[in-house]
Amino acid sequence: MNVLDKMDTTKLMNVNSNQEKVQKEISRLSQKKRKDMTSRERVRLLQLKLYLKAKQEKEYKFYVLYDKLFQPYVLEVAYQRVKAKNGKPGIDKQTFEDVEKYGRSKFLQELGEELRKRTYRPQAVKRVMIEKENGGERPLGIPTIRDRVAQTACKLVIEPTWEADFDESSYGFRPKRSAKDAITAIRVNLQRGKHAVYDADLSKYFDTIPHDKLEIALKERIADARVLHLIKQWLKAPVVEQDGSYTGGKGSKQGTPQGGVISPLLANIYMNLLDRIVNKPEGYFSNRGITMIRYADDFILMSNSIGPDAIQKVHDYLARMGLIINPDKSKLVNATDSSFDFLGFTFRYGRSIFSKQGRFWSVTPKSQSLKKIRQKINIRLKQIGHYRAEQVVHELNPIIRGWMNYYKIEKVSQTQVSFKKLEDYLRQRLNRYYNRKSQRKSRLFRHQAFDLLVKEYGLIKPYRTSGLRPVNTLR
Fold first, then answer.
1. Are 261 and 143 in contact (CB under 8 A)?
2. Is residue 256 within 8 Å of residue 267, measured between CB atoms?
3. In the chain, pLDDT over 70 holds for what percent of residues?
4. I need a surface site. Which of 194, 240, 278, 355 has the fewest CB within 10 A?
5. Which of 108, 51, 99 is nearest to 76 (CA)?
6. In the predicted model, is pLDDT for residue 474 greater than 50?
């Protein structure tokens, strides 16, 4: 048995093992009486059954899904998930406080009735612009809370049917998968000798997904016309720009708003077409040892060598899908000679300054990401003014912890240098912050503010610590 046969056998064993685990979980949940099950358990049982059905029957199409969207337990879980993210209000300015004051049960019951009677119509999406790491801006669509709950309910039901089909090379916006898994996979491939890396950049992917082609992809699994019609309504919902003008609407033929709950799933469903082509066993790319690693619309190709013909084939497939590669931001590199960036990390084949073991694969945060976290801290300190010390720590810790959590990947990323730079900045910035408070008395004035905040108030100390220790500050 050769290496490829062993890999295929292992993959098959993992698939079978996963299905056995799903079946056991279904059996465990099914033993409970319905009245004793929580809403989350009922949703989980539904999702497991849908996933197992799709996994066991590759060609199966689901004809009856819509009636599950407006079930009270599905809507309850959908609302919990939307509320947990505590997003901003949409065009109707309704907040979660407004919903709770109105009555959550009444709110969900009315939404459920609209879905059941098929009188539900999505409202316009509010568009805001958020700053990109490279200095540009990215449009973000904010649906109303009502529409976010409806989209989440739909996602809860249809996502398992697609999870059974999605390729292992896809890591973005999927359950139990993250950017850390994608970064780990890249490093493993580099260690295996796949040093030729084609870093592709799609131009405005979410804004250019063709509705007609996306519908064809959706119909591979979903045969329930009511669900397809509901998704089409969200795709064609008008967008309110910052100047108050309306764009999109019924005449729109492409795009799904970034910020919509359902949008990442739809984006994955559409890009799954490319996943299948590139990763097809005994296909053009597989025969050339080319592997794809994708996170939403960001993807790279990796192999021992990648010729221009392979790159052109990818471009041709994307063109047929109605998508465009940005040639200015896409590049082919030999990773042993040139560094490359992906998902906020820089990959470099460098020499160790700590040992004489030669060169190794270094995975570190991008320099721009360190600059961005500094700017975020600086802006927050300007906003909080004369907060008490424990309040300052309460504001800064989530920012620091979130950044460190993202970039700290055990046995993969080298972060201590970046964490040291972050700590040096915090020390300098906080000392300056308190030394300027001469107009108000503060016990940290003209003291080593950073060290005192760490010692007495639980400020996260990035360098040579996990940065994730419990913090006894404001809750």
1. yes
2. yes
3. 89
4. 355
5. 108
6. no
Report d(CA 368, CA 344) in Å as an integer: 8
Phi, psi (rounded to 5 degrees) for 94: -80, 130
What whole-number distance in Å separates Cα of residue 242 and Cα of residue 220?
37
- Among 61, 264, 263, 275, which Cα is nearest to 166's? 275
Q: Is the dihedral of CA 421, 422, 428, 429 positive or negative?
A: positive
Given a contact cutoff of 8 angstroms between Cβ atoms, the answer to whether 144 and 89 are in contact is: yes
Q: How far is CA 127 from CA 86, 260, 350, 378, in A?
A: 17, 11, 43, 26
Q: What pLDDT is stored for residue 467 in this prediction? A: 47
Q: pLDDT at position 135, please?
A: 62
Q: Is 418 exposed, middle or buried (0-12, 13-18, 19+ CB in 10 A)?
A: buried
Token readout for 31 is 């033993």
Distances (CA, A) of 248 to 238, 255, 473: 5, 9, 46
- Tally of CB atoms within 10 A around 419: 22
Query: Token pair of 468, please?
Result: 């994730």
- Is the pLDDT reported for residue 377 higher than 80? yes
Check the CA dihedral 325-328-334-339 and report its sign: negative
Q: What are the CA-CA distances from residue 458 to residues 391, 399, 404 (Å)?
A: 11, 14, 16
Strand partners, 128: 140
pTM above the 0.70 mark?
A: yes
Q: Amino acid letter at 321?
A: M
* Closest-CA residue to 462 (of 428, 430, 431, 425): 425
Amino acid, res. 421: K
Q: What confidence category does residue 3 fall into, taking pLDDT thresholds of 50, 70 and 90?
A: very low
Write b or e for each residue in 244-261: b if 16 or more Cβ atoms lie within 10 A of its Cβ, otherwise e: eeeebeeeeebbbbbbbb
